[in-house]
């Protein structure tokens, strides 16, 4: 089986001055993940690596760069899932760690549970030897400015929620296994303790070798109401292509609950899609040693992977 990986850097609005950094960020992440697949690594390792790369990138709303809750704190959600056996692990409302996706993976591999939250997730991370980092390291000037603006009496929180940026990855490895991973700081100025779609199995992501894998982004409460990732896989089980399944599910979310978002998908034969109902979503894919990436509807750049690896440090 030829490996495939798709990543997203969040659906929503990307400001002009951020576009280059977002394109570079998703390309860097997809190449890291593909490097693992190319060496015969698993889909699970590839999606974790790709998501880690974007958690470490301050341009995305995950890890460093996460948006802040109503008190100005970072509370992050993440999920990972293995399509081989439906094993999955997630964390919600975690603080002071660089890579929530790592803890999600540990939840999957080292506990009998699927989701740990807040204090419990913190204690578990400590017990697993995950280093704690000061909260300031996760907070960027941009996330702080946005938080302050949202506190102004005439602010329009709806407007600011458009500026999303969750990160995610889906992959198919050479053994035919699929996996997904998603990580986020959630919604700006959210209530303390708010758990979003990203931490919830079937909403923020789902992976099943019988059909494929999906990772979602967008308005979390809407995504949870329609259980977006699982809905997409259901459509694929009924015979739809990844693209058709994505469009059908996103349309349903828009008409049924008025929610916008984006998804990346790979099915178990290596067909993929990156679709969104928002204005933009940064995404990148590698299949057959060919890199594809874009931000706007209809935008699709192509490069060979060798060429892309050679210019990895450059902007795209
Ligand atoms: N940026 C996002 O995609 C937000 C995320 N889905 C949430 O609601 O937590």
From TrEMBL:
<protein>
    <recommendedName>
        <fullName>Isoaspartyl peptidase/L-asparaginase</fullName>
        <ecNumber>3.4.19.5</ecNumber>
        <ecNumber>3.5.1.1</ecNumber>
    </recommendedName>
</protein>
<dbReference type="GO" id="GO:0033345">
    <property type="term" value="P:L-asparagine catabolic process via L-aspartate"/>
</dbReference>
<feature type="binding site">
    <location>
        <begin position="194"/>
        <end position="197"/>
    </location>
    <ligand>
        <name>substrate</name>
    </ligand>
</feature>
<dbReference type="GO" id="GO:0004067">
    <property type="term" value="F:asparaginase activity"/>
</dbReference>
<dbReference type="GO" id="GO:0006508">
    <property type="term" value="P:proteolysis"/>
</dbReference>
<keyword id="KW-0068">Autocatalytic cleavage</keyword>
<feature type="site" description="Cleavage; by autolysis">
    <location>
        <begin position="165"/>
        <end position="166"/>
    </location>
</feature>
<keyword id="KW-0645">Protease</keyword>
<comment type="similarity">
    <text>Belongs to the Ntn-hydrolase family.</text>
</comment>
<dbReference type="InterPro" id="IPR033844">
    <property type="entry name" value="ASRGL1_meta"/>
</dbReference>
<dbReference type="InterPro" id="IPR000246">
    <property type="entry name" value="Peptidase_T2"/>
</dbReference>
<feature type="binding site">
    <location>
        <begin position="217"/>
        <end position="220"/>
    </location>
    <ligand>
        <name>substrate</name>
    </ligand>
</feature>
<dbReference type="InterPro" id="IPR029055">
    <property type="entry name" value="Ntn_hydrolases_N"/>
</dbReference>
<dbReference type="GO" id="GO:0008798">
    <property type="term" value="F:beta-aspartyl-peptidase activity"/>
</dbReference>
<dbReference type="GO" id="GO:0005737">
    <property type="term" value="C:cytoplasm"/>
</dbReference>
<keyword id="KW-0378">Hydrolase</keyword>
<feature type="active site" description="Nucleophile">
    <location>
        <position position="166"/>
    </location>
</feature>
<dbReference type="Pfam" id="PF01112">
    <property type="entry name" value="Asparaginase_2"/>
</dbReference>
């Amino acid at each position: 089986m030829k490996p495939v990986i798709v990543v997203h850097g969040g659906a929503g609005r990307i400001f002009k001055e951020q576009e280059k950094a977002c394109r570079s960020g998703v390309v860097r992440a997809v190449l890291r993940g593909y490097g693992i697949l190319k060496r015969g690594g698993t889909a699970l390792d590839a999606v974790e690596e790709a998501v880690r790369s974007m958690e470490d990138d301050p341009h995305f709303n995950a890890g460093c760069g996460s948006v802040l809750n109503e008190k100005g704190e970072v509370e992050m959600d993440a999920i990972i899932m293995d399509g081989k056996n439906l094993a999955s692990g997630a964390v919600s409302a975690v603080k002071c760690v660089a890579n929530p996706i790592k803890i999600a993976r540990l939840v999957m591999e080292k506990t009998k549970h699927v989701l740990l939250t807040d204090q419990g997730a913190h204690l578990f991370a400590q017990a697993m030897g995950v280093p704690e980092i000061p909260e300031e390291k996760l907070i960027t000037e941009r996330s702080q400015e946005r938080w302050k603006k949202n506190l102004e009496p005439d602010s329009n929180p709806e407007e600011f929620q458009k500026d999303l940026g969750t990160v995610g990855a889906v992959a198919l490895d050479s053994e035919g296994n699929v996996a997904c991973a998603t990580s986020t700081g959630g919604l700006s100025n959210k209530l303390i303790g708010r758990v979003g779609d990203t931490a919830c199995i079937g909403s923020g992501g789902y992976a099943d070798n019988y059909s494929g894998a999906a990772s979602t982004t967008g308005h979390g409460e809407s995504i949870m109401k329609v259980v977006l990732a699982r809905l997409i896989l259901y459509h694929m089980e009924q015979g739809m292509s990844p693209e058709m399944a994505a469009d059908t599910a996103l349309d349903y979310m828009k008409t049924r609950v008025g929610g916008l978002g984006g998804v990346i998908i790979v099915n178990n034969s290596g067909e993929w899609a990156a679709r969104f109902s928002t204005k933009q979503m940064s995404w990148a894919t590698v299949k057959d040693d060919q890199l594809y990436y874009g931000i706007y509807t209809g935008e699709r750049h192509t490069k060979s992977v060798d060429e892309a690896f050679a210019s990895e440090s450059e902007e795209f």
